[in-house]
Amino acid sequence: QKTADSFFHPRNSLKKPPNSAEEEDSAMENIVTEKKAEESHRQDSADLLIFILLLTLTILTIWLFKHRRFRFLHETGLAMIYGLLVGVVLRYGIHMPRDGTSVMLNCHVNASPATVLVNVSGKFYEYTLKRVLSSSGNKVDDVSDNENEMLRKVTFDPEVFFNILLPPIIFHAGYSLKRRHFFRNMGSILAYAFLGTVVSCFIIGLLMYGTVTLMKHVGQLHGEFFFTDCLFFGAIVSATDPVTVLAIFHELQVEPDLYALLFGESVLNDAVAVVLSSSIVAYQPTGDNSHTFEGMALLKSFGMFLGIFSGSFALGVATGIVTFTKLRDFQLLETALFFLMSWSTFLLAEACGFTGVVAVLFCGITQAHYTYNNLSRESQDRTKQLFELLNFLAENFIFSYMGLTLFTFRNHVFNPMFIVGAFLAVFIGRAANIYPLSFLLNLGRRHKIRSNFQHMMMFAGLRGAMTFALAIRDTATYARQMMFSTTLLIVFFTVWICGGGTTQMLSCQRIRVGVDSDQDNSVSVIASVKCNTKHESAWLFRIWYNFDHNYLKPILTHSGPPLTATLPPCCGPLARILTSPQAFENEGQLKDDDSDLILTDDINLAYGDITVNTDGSGVHTSSGAGFASGMSSEDLDRELTCGDNEVVMRGTCLVFPMDDSEPTLKDPHMRF
Question: What is the gyration radius of the CA atoms in the chain, in angstroms?
Answer without folding.
Answer: 31
